[in-house]
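Quick review question:
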């Protein structure tokens, strides 16, 4: 729900702001955030990733609103005590900083984003390399939010947390040519090249870019991802799929090979790749990724599913005649992140405090395309012409500096022409 809220911020920032505060009402005062609540009651399932999504959402919402006052909004914890949105985010990061296992990496506990890796950390020692990478991103964002509020000691502290965790990941989470995924309680490596099955996972490679790791390390991780996981059907979430149950991993090894988390084309990871390829300026990969994701496009592989809905996955080739059919539709976060990846990263509509910056990475075939965005009471009607890098921008016919944000004018419509070449 918090990850969805980050996505919501790009087109309904005020609604996203209210929604995040509602979600924070279920956070414990010690900073831990449970994933599931139903009818007002917490249904905790020991997932360890919920805290990072809160920080990402708070950061995104604040930049969309252009108002650091949001970070000072009081909102309750689940014990009815209250604190600012910033304090909620701070306690989330502080909790994770202490919630560590092997090598000081963040515990996986009963599962992270991959909630079917639910046996790897129940003894409290197993760790998630992916979540430790996500923590780096969260700590960097919290440091930035602290700077916005003039909390310089906090800014320095969380910058140090990010650097320390990044160092641990590089030392203990990188092996051969990839980031491993996790280390179980009993120190079984998961996602290492030496593993017979499940020797690579997509998420830690992708998130090394989101978390802004060293450029050379990002490049190595993404090269391995392209070589090992990018198929005609789409981006595999892991490879090779498990063919036997492994008690130190969890229920993903009980799924049929190629099904969902067990080596399927999991579209939540695939839409993250769209964002990552955009950040890396790989327009050809953006186009390829979109074609593989959309159920109506059979350029690379003949898929079969409702043409009007996003799926959580496509079943892998190991499933035989079901390959390319949806693993599940409607109930998925893939749709929200597809929207966010397109608006925020592919079209490159980047909120800054003084306006909206345009930094696109458009598919080469999108030589004439447009998007309209409501931003702080102003309507941005944006037309793109050509392909490649931005060569010029005009606003209501007046030339605009490419690197400068376009300042919103409340109640007005801005006609923006972006020429690429």
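Suggested answer, residue by residue:
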């Amino acid at each position: 729900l918090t990850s969805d809220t980050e996505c919501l911020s790009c087109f309904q920032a005020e609604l996203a702001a209210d929604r995040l505060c509602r979600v924070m009402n279920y956070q414990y005062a010690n900073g831990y955030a449970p994933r599931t609540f139903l009818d007002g009651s917490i249904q905790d399932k020991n997932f360890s990733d919920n805290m990072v999504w809160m920080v990402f959402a708070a950061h995104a919402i604040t930049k969309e609103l252009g108002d650091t006052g949001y970070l000072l909004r009081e909102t309750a914890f689940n014990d009815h005590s209250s604190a600012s949105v910033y304090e909620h985010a701070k306690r989330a990061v502080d909790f994770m900083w202490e919630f560590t296992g092997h090598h000081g990496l963040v515990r996986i506990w009963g599962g992270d984003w991959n909630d079917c890796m639910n046996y790897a950390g129940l003894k409290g020692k197993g760790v998630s390399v992916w979540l430790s990478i996500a923590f780096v991103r969260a700590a960097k964002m919290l440091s930035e939010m602290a700077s916005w509020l003039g909390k310089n000691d906090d800014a320095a502290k969380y910058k140090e947390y990010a650097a320390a965790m990044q160092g641990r990941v590089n030392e203990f989470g990188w092996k051969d040519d990839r980031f491993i995924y996790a280390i179980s309680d009993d120190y079984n490596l998961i996602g290492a090249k030496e593993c017979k099955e499940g020797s690579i996972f997509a998420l830690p490679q992708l998130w090394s870019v989101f978390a802004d790791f060293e450029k050379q390390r990002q490049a190595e991780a993404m090269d391995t991802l392209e070589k090992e996981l990018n198929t005609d059907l789409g981006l595999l979430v892991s490879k090779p799929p498990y063919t036997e149950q492994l008690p130190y991993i969890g229920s993903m090894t009980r799924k049929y090979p190629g099904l969902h988390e067990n080596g399927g084309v999991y579209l939540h990871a695939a839409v993250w790749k769209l964002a990552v390829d955009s950040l890396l300026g790989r327009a050809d990969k953006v186009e390829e990724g979109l074609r593989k994701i959309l159920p109506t496009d059979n350029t690379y592989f003949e898929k079969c599913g409702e043409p009007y809905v996003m799926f959580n996955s496509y079943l892998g080739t190991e499933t035989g005649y079901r390959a390319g059919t949806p693993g599940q539709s409607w109930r998925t976060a893939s749709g929200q992140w597809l929207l966010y990846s397109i608006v925020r990263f592919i079209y490159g509509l980047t909120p800054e405090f003084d306006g909206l910056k345009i930094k696109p990475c458009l598919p080469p075939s999108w030589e004439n395309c447009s998007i309209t965005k409501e931003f702080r009471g102003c309507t941005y009607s944006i037309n793109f012409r050509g392909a490649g890098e931005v060569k010029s921008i005009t606003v209501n016919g007046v030339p605009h500096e490419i690197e400068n944000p376009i300042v919103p004018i409340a109640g007005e419509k801005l006609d923006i022409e972006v020429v690429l070449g």
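Why it works: The radius of gyration is 21 Å. The mean pLDDT is 96.
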